[in-house]
Structure formats: C-alpha cells, structure tokens
Design brief:
Layout (H helix, E strand, L loop, with lengths): L2 H19 L12 H11 L4 H9 L1 E3 L2 E3 L6 E11 L6 E8 L2 H8 L4 H5 L1 E6 L5 E6 L6 E2 L5 H14 L4 H15 L33 E3 L2 E3 L5 E3 H6 L1
Antiparallel strand pairs: 1-2, 3-4, 3-5, 5-6, 6-7, 8-9, 9-10
Helix pairs in contact: 1-2, 3-7
Amino acid sequence: MLRSELVMKHRRNASHWLRRKGYDRNPGLRDDSFLHRLADIIVLRWNDWPSFLMIITGMCFGGNWSEPTMKTWFYRIRSGEKKHWLTGYPKPSILIVKDYDTYREMTKDLDEDGMYEWGAFNNNQDGDLHLGKRYWGGTFYDLESCMVPYLTRYLLNWHFRNWFGLRTQIYHLGLKCKVHRKHWYTCNEVPPPGGGGYNHWHCEELRWRHGPYHRFRSYRWDENGASFNVEDERVG
C-alpha cells in the first residue's frame, strides 16, 4: 500500500470515529478542546493549510476560530477578618472566577450595586486590555491596588498561553494566507493586467511541479499574457 493511501485510510477511520462522537456537529457547541480542533481539521479542513494553522492556534468563539485571546478572569473583593501581620490593617478576601458559566450563575440575581462589586481582567478580540471596574457612563476602569499581584499572574498566564507571542504570529500567518490566497510553497504569479484576472489571484501551482501555464482555480494564463478558462477550453 502506498504511503498516500495509508494516510487517507487512517484519515477516513479518524473521520468516521469523530463523526460518531458528534464532534463535527453544530459549530456553535465547539470549545477549545483538542478533539474539536482535530475534528475540524480532519473532517472539514484537511487540505486547507491556512485554516489548519488558524484552528491549531486560534480560540473558539461562536463556532469559529478567532485570534487567540486570554479568558476573562472575574473577581470580587470581600472584606475579611484577617489582618496584615505588619500593619494590622484588614486584609481583604479575594474571590477569583475563571469560568464564565460559574460567574453568570453567581451573579444572575444581583442588582446594579451587586454587579458593581465585581471586576474583571479581560483581553478582548481587538487586543484591548480591560482592568477592574468600569464607572457608569464612562470608559475609565478602576483597579484596586490589592489586585496588582493577580494582574501580574494574569499577564504571565497570558504570555505562557500565547507562547510568548508566537501563537498570535502563527495565527496571523494563516489568516494572511487565507485572505490573500497566497502560499509560500506555490508559484504566486499574478495574472497580467487586462487579461480578465485580478491582481489578488496568485498562481496555485507548486514550485517544483510547475507546468507551462499559471493557474488559479479554473483560470489559466501563460507567460505571454494570454489567458483562458478551463471550461472554455473544454467547450472549444
């Protein structure tokens, strides 16, 4: 059995197993687990190299793999009976909640004053870092001094989860190739001006197996600028 046939056989077996387990159903129920990523790669995006990178490094958001971000940490400061050993001042008790479902369950019956007691560390999709509590009617965020060590822990955790910036860079590499349809291992020649093609089309032929014509989907052109469609050639 050829190596390619063996690979396709194992892919089919893995695909059938993942389908039976339901990991390819309802994209809105996906999470960041390894099996959901594996199902999206093997079942749906096997030959899509940019999507492969985005699935491996991205974060699941609404069924899609978005730019990697840190999960939100919710916290609440409660005054406790403990005191600092040096100053004797009251030592606050801090509750950290890292799961959104748990936070929603704990705050579902609270009013506005009760909700204001909660703060958060958040790195949103735009890369903005939100800290502490937001004042009503404004965009200023307040962070208590006792939360600085927890903020340091949050930032260190984010650096480790982001592979010190490498994870974001790999995701953007796949996203750029996905948008521009340009891959490092292909010819990437663009169609000539006025030939009917677009300048964001890049030749998809492999560098080491390049034929006499450049090709993007069904559109082909040669070195002299002549262009034609494969369907038109077959009809003629």
